[in-house]
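Checked the freezer inventory, then went back to the computational side. Two predictions to log before the end of the day. The first one is the construct we discussed on Monday; recording sequence and tokens without edits.
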Amino acid sequence: MMTMATMWFGPAFAGRRRGGGPEGGRDRWNNGRVICPKLGAKSGWCRTVRSEVSNALRNLVAGFLGAYGFVSFWLFMALEENWTKAAPSDPNTALGLVYSHNEHGSYTYYSAFQATSLAIMFQTSIPLFFVALLIMPKSNLRTKGWSATWEPDDPRHLFWKAAILGVFATPLIVLIAGPYLIRTLNANGFVLDLG
């Protein structure tokens, strides 16, 4: 017999009743939604619900961070190439171009804003991409030495939805919100340089 609780929480909840009466697991004080009992994590269906929520959150965060890391790295490469072409090969203190940048043996000089922007983008993009790989839920994980293979544990395809959002949000974050952050950091005397 299909009860309300079985439809909402699946077979892990089948047979458990809360609130009594002929509702078959339906809690008449919570609009038909069953809440976790005072037993907390010891209850099987509460663990199932919590793990599904955890899985969804991990997929959303991993998708967004992975896309942010990937796109911001390519934005770093594009900005670095354009700024290197326009930067002088000798320091220019009148314009504030005093922070050296080594482009494969060729030195150019950036402003505090350019140096800090590139350093923060480079130092956050790659680690965030690997953090996304680390927190992404995995199933059938197989490791051999330093290599690993797995299948994504994303039944609702939330990872790719968050990744698409991250692809479109990253240029807005980096190119619109980023300059305000960098200018604030520079105004307070914080300058970061890749050297």
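The second is the one RB wanted added to the comparison set:
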Amino acid sequence: MGLLFGWWSPLPLAVRVLVGIAGTLVLLGASLWGAAAVWGAVVGSATVVVENVDCDPFEPPAGLVERLDALLPVLDVPGSPIGPGARGSFRVPAGTYEVEVTGSSLRGRWWQIEASGSFPGRLASLTFDGRELVGAGPVQVRLDDGSEHLIRASCR
């Protein structure tokens, strides 16, 4: 205890307040990430099969997958790119997602986790269980625990 107060007490009050605020923000951020990990394990998972009709191979960004995989124990992605005419199966946390798809990009949000990316070519159609998402604006998609869904992607 003496060691802590040996360097802490001579610091000006303003510095101690700033250090306290910074420490609190770091702890709050770590708590939110931990809560997301626990929540991901509690809510269960859904399977989403992605069918690449005629687009260039799809591959999730490795850095994003590694970060989310460490955070969400229910996440599982294909081990290789999904080429034209192929399918890949994803396991993702159950829940309500907000997605927005344009001809060249995808943005998705679940809880407080947001991800976005671009397609390797011009996307003509992306359907989720038969519902067209390209150009539909932000759309809510519900994935129940244990459910299975199909995404079909077609390019120009």
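For RB: The helical segments are 2-8, 13-43, 62-71. The chain has two domains: 2-42, 44-155. Let me know if you want it refolded.
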